[in-house]
Amino acid sequence: MKISILAAAAALMAGACSAQAANIEFWYGNTGPVETAIKAQCDAFNAAQTQHKVTCVGQGSYEVSMQKAIAAYRAKNHPVLIQFFDAGTLDLMLSNAVVPVQEILPDVKWDSYIAGARAYYETSGGKLFAQPYNASTLLFYTNKTELEKAGIMQTPTTWEDVIDAARKLKAAGHACPFVTDGDTWRVLEQFSARHGLPIASRHNGYDGLDAEYVFNTTFVAKHLQNLVDWRKEGLVKLNADTKAGNYTAAFNAGECAMMEGSSGSYAASTKAFDGKYQLTVNMAPMYKGYERHNTLVGGASIYVMKGHDQAEVDGAKAFLDFLRKPEQQMAFTAATGYVPVTNDVLDAINKSGDAKAAKYATAAIGIESMNQPPTADSRGIRLGFYVQFREIFMEETQKAFSGQQTMQVSLDNAKKRGDELLHRFEQTYKGVKLP
Questions:
Q1: Which tens digit of pLDDT belongs to each residue from 273-331?
Q2: According to the UniProt entry, where is the signal peptide (predicted)?
Q3: What is the CATH number of domain 23-136+297-370?
Q4: The domain defined by 138-295+384-428 carries CATH number 3.40.630.10
């Protein structure tokens, strides 16, 4: 009997030691200030408890992280947790390499997540497939100092106002009134979502794999043609038009007065503006006559990969629980400008007494933008090979910006090439039901 008791105690101690010694890996794709913030959270988690240890491994970019994770999964040498960006959602859902996070953590109050973040990563049954993490959305940045020099005392809220302000800035001698990079995320995805426009049929693929692109027939075509015309007029600049060679760098240097950019750009802008200019951040502009809907969540979410033992899964759950804490989200927002992902964080910020602090400027406005009334076409994008499509869209529209072809031809070509990807994806997963 005594031997049995001692054996049982030894087994329990061995299990406890094993749990303490477990080292789970979290792969992420960010660099710069965001990577610094991620590492800080990893260190904070390891310091807060002793049962689990997380090793956070940077992969340099979202795309590289995605490729390496899939290769590692095939080799059975993959991490427990992987950060994937928004465009890879459907690929991950159908990969059979991840476990829906809501199945692993069924008791979490997932409905506390902001609507715009939930919808993008939800299954058709309303369950979260991944835990939203570094959430961004599109915001409108202005150099208030430069606008006021040109006699513009109110921040523009419509595209008509933006261009009116741009003409005043140009007349006042400003060389770069408004800047963008023409990126797919900004000029197609976020524009379509907040204007209630479809990017593809079948509600952007949420209703089936047999979707086809339709953006070339929506108001997106007019907006992109406007950008071409405004650029010719000297009101809008792209990356290559700026001295800095990059739209955010050009805005942060004071070269450009207005910018549509990710909320994740906020930290760099505030640092660059400190002591030089006054920064304002607002929701992205709308065209008059359109009702505002939610902007999409950008950035990335965290998936739990299959093929790990229970101790590792428990470590993953503990780390995900830690990241959801309001104080952790607040610290991450303050360090990066990314938007909190749960609604309770705004209450925590208000109670902290720092609600009006610059470090939280993107929190309220970002959540407000993503919590605008949704439509069936503003939930998100559930289209196969979408990472590759983004590259096609940029390639074709850049031809229009450089004068090689009309914008309509560019969009028609992008639609045709994009549909070829969708049809190939549909054949790859023929007979598979969307989760």
A1: 999 999 999 999 999 999 999 999 998 999 999 999 999 999 999 999 999 999 999 99
A2: 1-21
A3: 3.40.190.10
A4: no
